[in-house]
Input
Amino acid sequence: MVFETILVGDVYSRSIVVTENSSVYDGIVTLFIEDVGTIFVVSENNILEGAISRKDLLKAAMGSKNSNEIPVSIIMTRMPNIILTTPEESVLTAAQKLLQHQIDALPVVKIIKVGDQTTFEVIGRFTKTNITRLFVQLAEK
Output
């Protein structure tokens, strides 16, 4: 099947990120400006720390009087609980992860190993929209 031969690196989008010290308000603004459902939270050197969804931000905004004072690091899903993909993974495998975990987006990461520690640099995002766009492109050929 063709989806097994196409790699995530061929179809992923640019990453939408905020830093871990950004406020919930900043996260909400980023979500609306970029028109995405998931934002990845990174450290200052673009290392993946977590993810926040539309639902996370809505819950935080509804439960707080001042979303400018709450850092996204308080509400994010943290590593290692984030499902990842790499540019070398097949689109089929990445799509199966989206379905299996019922999520909207996967961070596309570059794996960085230093000694016995592994970190993940965010280089993009893989979403249901990427799959749909690919499907339409293949159908048009």
The domain at 2-140 is CATH 3.10.580.10 (CBS-domain). The helical segments are 24-34, 54-62, 72-75, 91-101, 128-140. The chain has one domain: 2-140. The CA atoms of residues 20 and 58 lie 18 Å apart.
